[in-house]
Amino acid sequence: MTALIDIAELRFAWPDQPELLHIEQLTVHPGERVFIKGPSGSGKSTLLGLLAGIQTASRGRLTVLGQDLTRLGGHARDRFRADHLGYIFQQFNLLPFLSVQENVTAALIFSRHKRSRLRAPAEVEAARLLTELQLPRALWSKPVHSLSIGQQQRVAAARALIGRPELVIADEPTSALDTDNREAFIELLFAECRQQGSSLVFVSHDPYLEPLFSRVLSLSELNKVNLC
Prior knowledge:
Elements: E1 5-12, E2 21-28, E3 33-37, H1 44-51, E4 59-64, E5 67-68, H2 74-84, E6 85-88, H3 100-105, H4 112-117, H5 122-132, H6 149-161, E7 167-171, H7 179-196, E8 199-204, E9 215-218, H8 219-222
Parallel strand pairs: 3-8, 3-9, 6-7, 7-8
Antiparallel strand pairs: 1-2, 1-4, 4-5
């Protein structure tokens, strides 16, 4: 099976800082739901940024969907991310004065590839995702800043999922929710990923979520840098 993600001897350091990550080997296959755990400051968000091409490795190979991101320039990495990835940020990064539906369809503006993968018009697909993620229709035309944290979380997930991305990356998206709501949200996210054929890489420090995933990885064990 061709790997979705293939990492070899990946190293990363912020400018003028000691090395933060050294991952000798990591492979993720299509269809996997991977949970990456680790304490705050261990480099989880940085690893996700590398997978998405937001940051660039100091050394090594990082291949996503057959494309070595270490060989791409900044514009090409941005294009790759827009075309193939959905990203749920920890702080959601929604556009506060756009409506809920406008926030979801905004993910398609810069990607002809995602637009071509739609099975319905953008507004119809956004409505389907918002319905599946249990966001009431009465909220769809409201500015997203007027929503609760849990409601904004669902908007962020719908934005990440629209256009059927091959890989969905989620950075601590449930940290503001209680246990019942966290599990319910993740089950909805799993269902959409299965339906769309998207793989999921999910980062959290919450051990109660681990049993929900098909594979659990410890960044502390993957990372050869001693951060203690």
